[in-house]
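During the reporting period the student researcher (J.K.) took over the structure-prediction task from the postdoctoral fellow and processed the backlog of single-chain submissions. One of the processed entries is reproduced below for the supervisory committee.
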Amino acid sequence: MRLLRDCYNVGILSSVLVHPGFVETIGHPTPSQKGLITAIYYLGTWTSYIFLSHPASDLLGRRYAALTGTVTVAVGNALECSARGPGAYAMMVAGRIICGMGVGIVSTSVPLYQSEVAPAGERGKYVVLNHVGLPVAARVGYGITFWSETEYDISISWRVSLAVILIPCFIFCGGLPFLPESPRWLVEHDHYERARRSLRWLREGSFADEQIEIELTRIREDMEEYKASGTNWLSLFRNRNLFNRLWRASLLQFMAQMCGATAMKYYLPTLLTKLGVSTRITLLIGGIESTLKIGMTIIDMFLIDSLGRRATLVGGCIAMGLGMLINGVFGQAYPDNSNRAADIVCIIFIFIYALGYSMGFGPAAWVYGSEVVRARGLNFSASGGAIGSIVTAQVWPVGNDKIGSRIYFYFMSINFACIPSGA
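J.K. obtained the following structure tokens:
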């Protein structure tokens, strides 16, 4: 449910940006203004990653930090849906940044919670499951926008598409208090008996009592060692070993967005429209692309632990680089969309790009970060992804408008450059 709520907020905007009702309400935004609407969301997530997420997760616990973030998302979403009049653009921007702040809190507290409650040998699978939400939410978003376009007036239908996010918000808020808190967080705050009960709830039926006690003892020993070391968030920068982990995790998050993923998430309908595809067919193609992503991400749940993080990253980068290459080459060869077969090939390789991302960077960036750094370190590393998203979201629409399909070669080079580092 958390996945649907947060990722729907990302996935729905791609279809809303090309919606006639939205375009008219906002005042026919320029490529730069569309870029700001997209990028400002990630300024909100970056703010949360650096200043809000860790204090919330540490003081409130993983569950109630997620609850706080969800309420923040609902407030921002309400502002987006009510955008109208001369101040519509400003309201949309304000709503986006508030949503970003809420998602920033949740998107670190939930993977951290998952990595702390999952058995050691299955953490990769659990964190990849967290990534399934993005294509699922995008698929739902395309479907709802397609449906609402026929059921409602154009001035209302895009608002309905955005408002749907409130449903999983309410369900998520209602269910969170009934989940057990992270045993690691409970031990860190000296709630040992609650930690034992939490572990029994989580491991019931698959672990014996002795195994649960051994796991609890290991958690206590880890926390005692951590406290005795005097390590704090500044140690992430002072300690050479910790800093090496931090910059690698941060760079991976940064490159996961600089590879063009943010652009494809938000501007896919716009790109398809430039290929001469109608708005309704664009929404259908976007839904197919999201469905393929769902399948690939589910497959990756099993590949990432068996093949390893590096192998999936390399395979993903190769597929993504090829997808960008073909779109750049065919875009230059047929700049006026004069060859229908070439347009179809471009769409197919957009699908291949999506499969590569769902196999590699998409889940691996979060899996790696949750394993090599924790809590405050995960927040700092996730901020790398926010910075990459801000840059890509602002560069893509302007670059696509100014230099056309040559923008694909820029992102192609980034994907191919990442292959040696993952090998």
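The committee noted the following: The mean pLDDT is 82.
J.K. will present the remaining backlog at the next meeting.
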